[in-house]
Amino acid sequence: MLAAVSTPPFHPSPQATAAWRDRDDACPGALRLHAADDGALARIRIPGGVLRVDQAEALGRAARELGDGELHLTSRGNVQVRRLAAGCGGELAKRLGASGLLPSQRHERVRNIVASPLSGLDGRGFTDVRPWLRELDALLCASEAAAWLSGRFLFALDDGRGDVAGLSADVTVRAAPGEGAWLRVGASDAVLPVSSEEAPRAALLAAEVFLEAAKGQTWRVSELAVPADELLSDVVRRLRAPQPTAVPGWQVTGEPSPGLVTAPDGMTGLSVLAPLGRLTAAQWAELTASAVRELRLTPWRGVILPMAPVSRLSHLAATGLITEPASPWTGVGACIGRPGCAKSRADVRTDAATALRPGGGLPVYWSGCERRCGRPRGDHVDVVAEQDGGYRISVVRDGLAQATFLNSPLLATAVAAARTQDQFHDQ
Ligand code: SF4
């Protein structure tokens, strides 16, 4: 475990900050709106995806009154509001601030924290990560250095089940069996055992160590010339901690299934998925009406409603939300595509909907171009629009595309076959 040592705060030099301003990441935020083809877009960071009911209601009102009424869930459990009216940025910021969704304007784009969404609800996991979540968010917002993180830097707080530990975060804290946790930097070969109390502070320190090494030239640990193990060693040195240990079995699990969330002592909540991550105003209203105290947005574009009664499940299903694993929408994702994105070669969301088939299998992700915004991290089927109007379909395993289909005339059949891998051939 770590020695209780306070670490000096990190303050970038004026030269460094000047260089950083020259090369900012382009991630949108709640204050820095992105000019999309269909209007302005705001991305609102929701640490851990946790929203109080009143905050969810405020978000829904903002989307209806300032945007097109829809809310889009991202692969980090954040929310995007699209088609915002021109010049509404100040009003949006005012509303977010009033509802507690903007605790620090300087840090609004760096509060990227994913956390096991079922933590404390279903009897799995080694700890409840919500205290870590609250503390890490508070530490982030209080850190001068952390304001210089990019909008892409990601923290993951895993309760030990291995769900968000598989999301390739820059800094991961994973609960260990018994007590304590492991701190991992990027894909480091080692982890640092830390006590539960020290875990959030150690996570922030790892991010500050990254900032010093990156000097504003890279946004993610994986892009850094310095190996992740060296960053971890630096964290160990500053904390005067014992040497890291080899990464223990880092098994990862999947996303929460839609339906009832049950614990050994009975039903504890509901889990739903949003088709392609898009929530209509009516769906959001039903979710907020069904919620008891809070909603938890998941990095898999779902929503957990802790303690919501089972009777609400049919109401949620009636709005088109996914409430059972057998839904053909389960595992299907897509970027925004046309008409929202100028780079897109196709209306991928319409094409994905048209190609829906029962049967499931590997997750499938449709992209309008090779950037593949929001694609899943694990094994999946990658469907990318081509210049000629067709799609390239690849099966991705262990980060490698293992087979490719080119522009099948039977797109839906080819995608279904790739997901189940029962009848396809290489080209
Ligand atoms: S993957 Fe390409 S088309 Fe899709 S949203 Fe990203 S940039 Fe746009």
Class by alpha and beta content: alpha+beta
β-sheet strand percentage:
15-25%
**Coarse shape:** globular
Tell me about the biggest sheet?
6 strands, mixed
- Assembly state: single chain
Residue share in helices?
25-40%
What's the number of helices?
A: 10
Under the CATH scheme, which architecture of the domain at 110-246 would be assigned?
2-Layer Sandwich
Strands of the widest sheet, in order across it, are 6-7-8-9-10-11
Count every beta strand, where a strand is a DSSP E run of 2 or more residues. 21
The CATH topology of the domain at 110-246: Sulfite Reductase Hemoprotein, domain 1
How would you characterize this protein structure?
This protein has 427 residues and is of the alpha+beta class. Among the domains are: 110-246, Sulfite Reductase Hemoprotein, domain 1, CATH 3.30.413; 265-318, no CATH class; 332-420, Sulfite Reductase Hemoprotein, domain 1 (2-Layer Sandwich), CATH 3.30.413.10. Helix content is 25%, strand content 22%. The protein contains ten helices and 21 strands. It has helices spanning 14-22, 53-66, 89-98, 130-142, 199-214, 228-239, 281-290, 312-318, 348-354, 411-420, and strands spanning 34-36, 39-44, 50-52, 71-73, 79-84, 113-115, 155-158, 171-175, 181-185, 190-194, 245-246, 259-263, 266-273, 278-279, 294-297, 302-306, 332-334, 364-367, 380-385, 391-397, 400-406. The strands form four sheets. The chain has a six-stranded mixed β-sheet with strand order 6-7-8-9-10-11. A five-stranded antiparallel β-sheet has the order 1-2-5-4-14. Strands 3-15-16-13-12 form a five-stranded antiparallel β-sheet. Helix 2 (53-66) packs antiparallel against helix 7 (281-290), helix 4 packs across helix 5 and helix 5 (199-214) crosses helix 6 (228-239). Mean pLDDT is 90; it is low at 1-22 and 423-427.
